Amino acid sequence: MWHVLSEMYLDTEHDDHALGWMARELARSPYSVAELREIDLWEVAPVLWLNWYAVAGAWSGFDPDWLEAACRRRVERRSLGRRLAAFFGWRWFVQRANAEYWARLTPMIVALRGLER
Q1: Domain range holding 70?
Q2: Nearest to 108 by CA among 14, 13, 38, 45
Q3: Any idea what DSSP says for residue 12?
Q4: What CA–CA distance (Å, rounded) separates 109 from 107?
Q5: C-alpha 37: how far from its chain's center?
Q6: Were both Cys, which of 46, 48, 51, 109 would link to 57 (CB 3.0–4.6 Å)?
Q7: Residues with Cβ < 8 Å from 101, sequence gap 6 or more?
Q8: pLDDT tens track of the chain, all 117 residues?
Q9: pTM listed for this prediction
Q10: In Å, what is the CA distance from 78 to each residue of 24, 33, 40, 58, 103?
């Protein structure tokens, strides 16, 4: 899922075709939409958020091996202190930045699954 979620951090506009691909891949996962959003928030965003601000950010994709290793490290280092500190601004920041993606992806994922799980 990390690779699919990483698409939100590329320096590019995603058309309906790209969003459809993302929705299909996310719908195939065993995770609910709420769980996917948490994975984005705590595992993907901390690794890739700086790409939003890079002058020449990545636009063609991130190296899958690097991304997997970086996200796994985030999973292994999820300390309570870090999560509490992040809670006060991080959740708002990431949710606001990715709001348009999730607003478009959520109904597509739900429709592909037939119901929210």
Answers
A1: 2-113
A2: 14
A3: S
A4: 5
A5: 7
A6: 51
A7: 8, 14, 19
A8: 999 999 998 878 888 999 999 999 999 999 999 999 999 998 999 888 888 776 555 556 788 999 999 999 888 876 776 667 666 787 888 888 899 999 999 999 999 998 655
A9: 0.83
A10: 28, 21, 14, 26, 27
Q: List the structure tokens of 45.
A: 């965003």
The whole-angstrom distance between residue 108's C-alpha and the CA centroid of its chain comes to: 16
Distance CA 15, CA 20 (A): 9
Q: Distance of CA 51 to CAs 22, 23, 44, 56, Å?
A: 19, 22, 12, 8
CB contact at 8 A, 30 and 113: no
Closest CA to 94 of 43, 25, 41, 15: 41
Q: Report residue 38 CA to chain centroid gap.
A: 8
Provide the token pair at 66. 């690097």
- Among 69, 70, 66, 50, smallest CA distance to 58 is for 50
Give the pair of three-digit tokens for residue 68.
């997997």
Tally of CB atoms within 10 A around 102: 16
Query: How many domains does the structure of the chain reveal?
Result: 1
